[in-house]
UniProtKB/TrEMBL annotation:
It is found in: Cell membrane. It is a multi-pass membrane protein. This is Glycine/betaine ABC transporter. The keyword Transcription does not apply. One of its GO terms (cellular component) is plasma membrane. InterPro entries: BCCT_transptr. Its main location: membrane. One of its GO terms (molecular function) is transmembrane transporter activity. It holds the Pfam family BCCT. The keyword Membrane applies. Keywords: Cell membrane, Membrane, Transmembrane, Transmembrane helix, Transport. The chain crosses the membrane at residues 18-36, 56-76, 96-117, 156-175, 196-218, 238-258, 270-294, 325-343, 355-379, 411-439, 451-468, 480-499.
């Protein structure tokens, strides 16, 4: 028992200990292979990426559309009034803290990284003919695709299904164990298929690690490129040092817990985002940015369904699968831990309130950020050098180049590094919180177990610096997310059944209350007549 306490598993059951050991060993082996043979891992990841999106890119696109319809129907039906944790549950966090945790955890550094990488890449390599929108400039179309993928409907498709299902089944319905497999309660009897729940939790942990590792990889390489090209520093060595500092802050957050650690890191990151975007407005090509943003917004809103369902079936290549398919796969990989984390911090809120904080408000915030970042790198005079850097070194090099040609670029670079650091800390905090919670079945997992998972994820982030091709890192998400796509539909069906049950109970209580009030009113009237 004492030996297991070293891993924070002293009170855990044997299946939970096995879950920790198997998933930890598998991911350590993958990370170790990446350190030892980065070229071989790059080749494997690229192959898996190409195969997944070539044959299943259409599936991710279709599933995203289906999930969007289901989520909207659930949110704006009578089920949208259901409260996470039951009708008497009280919110644990104020609105700003709640929004900060949801926003910084749910989007990571992707807003900055892909806000530069995707528009530049699409202008360089546009959709094959026939293009999805006639008459739009390629820069406006590129930014419109960015809005589709990370503003709306991307925000509504992937996180909310898990948030709704986890919140209703685990909290409102009161399922005992705080695990991903708990969302199967009422659909599949664990005793009838031994080991199924354990396998689901293992797959959830691996998919979560894959999703967060992708962002850690993007963030690590971007940070290294900014430090190296903008400040002329020894990038990789310094980035290891930054990760060491992040590790210290992370461990402090682990001991502080959810309310003080993750919440305060998220709030600080939100302030840094606001400052960095304000500086970008001042030093960037403001007039062009505003004009492009409005034009791209028109393309986006006027052609939303056309762009989100675009597959280019008669065109050569797999352009749509490699963009929209990849994005939806990445969202799917993140949906397990972000969705369950959002449910955790949303106790006391209704499903409609979750829709506002997870979709509507972030839609406005991400629209502003992507408009500013996209206008900055696509502006005449900026696009040419940024595009050349992208062709030579990928997205990290493009971001670094954009900073070097921007007035007060050093100030902006410092802010970007701080924002990326904040995203890493909040994402790492929340990811290990949920991984540990899934492992132990406890919504407040102990700090020791969380520290072990945090060390594993930090190890993945440093390993990514050994992978020469930036694109190889992105293969983890779609490859590990594919098996979970059907699971998302299953848990939504389970959530619907539970929501219907609780809605009926609420209707019965209301009906009884109305009957009691009517009876009291009649008695009062009779007494008055007497």
């Amino acid at each position: 028992m004492k030996g297991w306490s070293v891993f924070g598993l002293g009170e855990a059951s044997w299946p939970e200990r096995a879950l920790f050991l198997v998933s930890m060993a598998a991911m350590l082996a993958l990370a170790g292979f990446g350190f030892a043979r980065p070229a071989a891992l790059t080749s494997i990841l690229n192959g898996a990426f190409d195969w997944t999106l070539r044959y299943f890119g259409w599936w991710f696109i279709l599933l995203g559309f289906v999930l969007l319809i289901i989520v909207i129907l659930l949110t704006f039906s009578r089920y949208g009034r259901l409260r996470i944790g039951g009708p008497n549950a009280e919110p644990e966090f104020d609105v700003f803290s709640w929004l900060s945790m949801v926003f910084t955890v749910g989007f990571g550094a992707s807003i900055l990284i892909w806000g530069v990488g995707e528009p530049v890449s699409i202008v360089q390599n546009p959709p094959p003919s026939p293009v999805p929108v006639d008459g739009a400039s390629m820069k406006s179309l590129a930014l419109a695709f960015m809005f589709i993928h990370e503003v709306f409907p991307g925000l509504a498709m992937w996180y909310l299904p898990v948030s709704i299902a986890f919140g209703i089944i685990v909290y409102t319905h009161g399922v005992g164990e705080y695990k991903i497999s708990s969302m199967l309660t009422g659909l599949v009897d664990e005793d009838r298929i031994p080991g199924l729940y354990w396998i689901v939790d293992l797959a959830a942990i691996v998919a979560t690690i894959g999703g967060i590792a992708t962002t850690l990889g993007f963030s690590a390489q971007t940070m290294a490129s900014i430090l190296g090209q903008t400040f002329g520093l020894k990038a990789n060595f310094l980035t290891y040092g930054v990760f060491a500092v992040i590790g210290v802050v992370f461990l402090a957050d682990v001991w502080l817990g959810l309310r003080k650690g993750i919440r305060n890191a998220a709030r600080a990151t939100m302030y840094l985002i606001g400052v960095s975007m304000a500086v970008l407005v001042v030093v960037g090509p403001t007039l062009f940015t505003f004009q492009l943003a409005l034009d791209a917004t028109g393309v986006w809103l006027s052609n939303m369904f056309r762009l989100m369902l675009y597959t280019g079936p008669t065109a050569t290549g797999h352009w749509a699968a490699n963009w929209t398919g990849f994005w939806w796969a990445w969202w799917a990989a993140w949906s397990i831990f972000v969705g369950s984390f959002v449910a955790r911090v949303s106790k006391g809120r209704t499903i409609r309130e979750m829709f506002v904080i997870l979709v509507l408000v972030p839609t406005f915030l991400t629209w502003i950020q992507h408009s500013l970042i996209g206008g900055w790198v696509l502006a005449p005079g900026n696009f040419e050098p940024v595009s050349a850097a992208y062709a030579a070194g990928g997205t990290p090099a493009a971001i670094a180049r954009a900073l070097t040609i921007t007035p007060l670029g050093n100030v902006l670079a410092v802010l970007f590094v701080l924002v990326i650091t904040g995203y890493i800390i909040t994402s790492l905090d929340s990811a290990v919180f949920m991984i540990s919670a899934i492992t132990l079945g406890d919504e407040n997992p102990n700090a020791i177990n969380r520290a072990w998972w945090g060390g594993l994820l930090a190890f993945f982030g440093m390993m990514s610096l050994q992978i020469s091709e930036f694109e190889a890192i992105q293969a983890l998400s779609p490859t590990l997310a594919l098996p979970f796509t059907l699971f998302l539909l299953v848990i939504l069906f389970a959530a619907y059944r539970v929501a219907r049950k609780h809605a009926r109970e609420a209707d019965e209580i209301n009906a009884e209350g109305d009957t009691l009030i009517s009876s009291q009113n009649r008695n009062t009237k009779n007494e008055g007549d007497e």
